[in-house]
Amino acid sequence: MAMQMNSVVHVSTSPSPSPATSPPPEGKQEHGEVAAVHVVGVGDDEAVMVVKDEEAFGGGGVDYSGRAQWLRAAVLGANDGLVSVASLMIGVGAVSESGRAMLVSGVAGLVAGACSMAIGEFVSVYAQYDIEVAAARRRRRQRRRRCDGDGEEEGSGRLPSPFKAAAASALAFTVGALLPLLAGGFVRPWAPRVAAVCAATSAALAGFGALGAALGGASPARSAARVLLGGWAAMAACYGVLRLFANLY
Fold first, then answer.
1. Ranges of Pro residues compositional bias?
2. How far is CA 131 from the centre of its chain?
3. Residue 41: partners with Cβ closer than 8 Å, 6 or more residues away
4. Is position 145 within any domain?
């Protein structure tokens, strides 16, 4: 993991002779540019600025924060589809040996889950969209009051797209849900069918966990084991509860 180093620079706020002759903030420069400077406090005589530079100080590495939101949504959607449909098929298989019943239950889980994920993501991201639009309008009004209408307006940042988020979430859920359906939905004997669903789900869970960790800069082995154990627990719980329900009723 790249090491992040911060340095605090005290810069006088008194007028300088000219912008061209004013020295840059003290700190390491790379390719003629100073590291990112963020003002964290302003006093009467000086401003305190925090200089954050991950690459100029030799840290290097890749910044994963920009893709964190979409990566999280994709991994969660695929895992939800995989575990939900696999657990549903195994639970139905616990009370019925019919291959058709398992297949129909899996397809129903795929459709219902994809719609639920898409609607939930749409509502969540649209709420975030409304909040960011309202905050941007407040900033523009405050800026116009400070500058008496003479200052330049802030450009609008990149706002989240509710439709793209909903489509991505539904697609990720569908991809995950198709794996147990294709693995065991068309196998006729009961025992091989359940074994195929469990094997395909286990392999996919480990793969999704390792892939998400690798793209996010974490440990693939630890993430794969964590996701795999969680999937096994969900499938075992679904099988046990439905088996108990079938024996009681």
1. 16-26
2. 19
3. 47, 48
4. no
Structural domain contains residue 122? yes
Is 119 found in the same domain as 33? Answer: no
Q: Would you state the structure tokens that stand for residue 114, as one six-digit string?
A: 């994809």
Q: Which of 80-94, 126-140, 150-164 has the lowest mean pLDDT?
A: 150-164
Domain match, 96 and 166 both: yes
- In this prediction, residue 97 has a pLDDT band, given cuts at 50, 70 and 90, of confident
Q: Based on the domain organization, do 14 and 121 belong to the same domain?
A: no
Confidence (pTM): 0.64
Number of domains in the chain: 2
> Which range of residues forms the domain containing residue 105?
67-127+161-248
Task: Give the sign of the dihedral formed by CA 78, CA 81, CA 82, CA 84.
Answer: positive
Separation of alpha carbons 100 and 72, rounded Å: 34
Q: What is the mean pLDDT of residues 115-135?
A: 87
